[in-house]
From TrEMBL:
This is Uncharacterized protein. The keyword Protein transport does not apply. One of its GO terms (molecular function) is actin filament binding. PROSITE patterns: FILAMIN_REPEAT.
Length: 252
């Protein structure tokens, strides 16, 4: 789409305008000079400038000012569809994703704890409405860390181009901070998070450094002693068919 007109048209019209403005200024100054001489000058002064005023007025009266535009007002719009189509094709591509905040999750120790002065990392995994991983990047993620005094800073988002993103932030003071992670201006699952910032010297040691071996007490066996109960007066020397008849008293 373009407009076709003579390339000299603006210059012609601008020159005409300047010429008219100069003529207007000349008429105004001559009129003021004549009026001042007639109203305030003496007869002698009027006679002295009479010739000059006559020449100036005659010159202005005989001057031909181009009052009509020296160019026409014809403008024609010609639409070139082929050019528009090519321009759109070369303009760029449309980018979108199927990620939604309700299914997107953030993971990492940085959601709970951070060391002062050391970069902290959180991994954000974008997912679609079915909870499936979105395998492309370009999602609009934002992270905001609010300090105990109400001030806030923004975290850095690194796009891994595979549906996951790395959130990086560094805290400078101790205290409890609030970390808000949003996807398309909507909070992701679990956001906002409460993060406690501590000094590196106060950080807990790893489990390997605090292992303690605790020996379990040895288990003792309980021995039982069986004592034959004296035979009853009704018993006989004949061996019983039922061995339970000779009861045993168990002493612990």
């Amino acid at each position: 789409m373009f407009v076709v007109y003579p390339p000299h048209r603006p210059q012609v019209l601008q020159t005409q305008l300047e010429y008219l403005l100069q003529g207007q200024e000349k008429i105004r100054s001559s009129s003021e000079f004549t009026e001042q001489a007639l109203s305030q000058g003496s007869e002698t002064e009027v006679l002295l400038v009479k010739k000059q005023m006559s020449e100036t007025l005659n010159e202005l009266a005989g001057q031909d000012f181009p009052l009509q535009p020296q160019e026409n007002d014809h403008l024609d719009l010609r639409v070139e569809t082929d050019g528009v189509r090519k321009s759109i094709q070369n303009l760029g591509v449309l980018i979108t994703t199927s990620a939604i905040a309700q299914q997107t999750v953030a993971t990492g120790e940085g959601l709970r704890h951070a060391l002062i002065g050391q970069p902290t990392t959180v991994t954000v995994t974008t997912k679609d409405k079915d909870g499936e991983l979105v395998k492309t990047g370009n999602a609009i993620l934002q992270a905001e860390i609010t300090a105990p005094d109400g001030t806030y800073t923004e975290g850095e988002i690194v796009d891994n181009r595979n549906g996951t993103y790395e959130l990086l932030y560094t805290l400078k003071t101790e205290g409890d901070f609030t970390l808000s992670v949003t996807l398309y201006n909507q909070p992701v699952k679990g956001s906002p998070y409460r993060v406690r910032a501590t000094k590196p010297s106060d950080a807990a040691h790893s489990p390997d450094d605090v292992k303690r071996r605790v020996k379990s007490p040895s288990s003792g066996h309980i021995r039982q002693k069986a004592v034959r109960r004296p035979a009853s007066m009704y018993s006989t020397g004949k061996k019983k068919d039922n061995p339970i008849e000779d009861e045993l008293i168990i002493r612990i």
